[in-house]
Amino acid sequence: MKIYVGNLSYDVTEEDLNQAFQPFGQVESVAVIKDKMSGQSKGFGFVEMASKAEGQAAIDGLNGKEFKGRTLNVNEARPRSDNRGGYGGGGGKGGGGGRGGYGGGGGRGGGGGRGG
């Protein structure tokens, strides 16, 4: 059973989560979700327990409990169905031809002497 763990302190490691969930049964996997650019924790993660019963025991035992100074939000992970809304695919061709630059009149013309 896959479990969502939210409101984690930013310094919580996967090992910390593993230790928190082990009393409830066999921990199959642990992941703390991190920002790709900075490597900083995003404050949530996932734990996979060997069975639904163990997962439910962990949810019941840890949801709302304080862990490293934060109150945990623990529940069964739901599959992401919405695909984050979109903006799919490459988007418009943009810009376009733009030939004609500013009319050919070569106003370099000499003179200009205002002299007076």
Could you please describe the fold and organization of this structure?
- By secondary structure, the chain is of the alpha+beta class.
- The chain contains 2 helices and 6 strands; from the N terminus they run βαββαβββ.
- Strands 2-3-1-6 form a 4-stranded antiparallel β-sheet, covered by helices on one side. It has a two-stranded antiparallel sheet with strand order 4-5.
- The chain is globular.
- It starts with a strand and ends in a 40-residue tail after the last strand.
- Residues 88-93 have low confidence and may be disordered.
Summarize this entry quickly.
This protein is α+β, with helices and mostly antiparallel strands. 16% of the residues lie in helices and 26% in strands.
CATH superfamily of the domain at 2-77: RRM (RNA recognition motif) domain
Mean pLDDT, to the nearest integer, reads 83
The number of helical elements comes to: 2
What spatial form do the alpha-carbon principal axes imply? globular
Main beta-sheet strand count, sense and barrel state = 4 strands, antiparallel
From the alpha-carbon coordinates, what is the Rg to the nearest angstrom? 30 Å
H/E series: EHEEHEEE
Strand order of the largest sheet: 2-3-1-6
Strand content: 25-35%
CATH topology of the domain at 2-77: Alpha-Beta Plaits
Set out the fold topology.
Elements: E1 2-6, H1 14-21, E2 27-34, E3 41-49, H2 52-62, E4 66-67, E5 70-71, E6 73-76
Antiparallel strand pairs: 1-3, 1-6, 2-3, 4-5
